[in-house]
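Sat 14:20. Reprocessing the chain from the morning session after the first attempt stalled halfway. Input below, unchanged.
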Amino acid sequence: MITGTLINAAAVIIGSLIGLLFHARLPQRYTDILFQAIGLFTIVLGISMALKAEVWILVILSLIIGAIIGEALRMDRFFDQLADRLGKYFGIGSGRFNEGLLTSFLLFCMGSMTVLGAIEEGLGGKPELFYIKSLMDGISSIALASGMGIGVLFSVVPLFLYQAGLTVLAAQFGSFMPELMITGISATGGVILVGLGLNLLKITQLRILNLLPSLVVLVLVTFLYLAF
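Finished this time. Tokens:
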């Protein structure tokens, strides 16, 4: 059931390892310019995704409610503590590790291709979208790991859990997922990516992790919107 996700994870691992070979040989000024390029790309990608929203009020409500939930749970603090432990274990700065993991996971998983691919495979079809996504993510992970280091490699863990979970859910409820929900998830993820890009460019210091519950809230408010 999760063949596509396994291939996607393998592509990210291979791409990250190749990128890490380049990362070890890159002077700091090249790493800095790669960060800027990734930040700009993230903002443009986020805007293009966000503009696909069909009912903006659902996205706005989801972001507001999700932000409150994320702040109450202090998801950023938990993630920072985990990154700090892993960073110390591997002898790297937790800030850079944190940035690499979070940036890669969001870029790999926030698009509608992730949701549509999970539905395709969950409903018993060939995971062709995940094959395409694997190629794209594998190439992207080379560039990401070149600039951000080993955190990109570790993003394969949340990527696998997220995509595998979506595929299992799609196997149970995929036929009931309306297009409005899929575009809403993509648009909400796009807004989060814009914030992430601003952080990468050091323009802001938004607590992006505390916005992630918005994706779950979007699913709930979409069901309520369609029901009433």
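The chain is about 80% helix and 0% strand.
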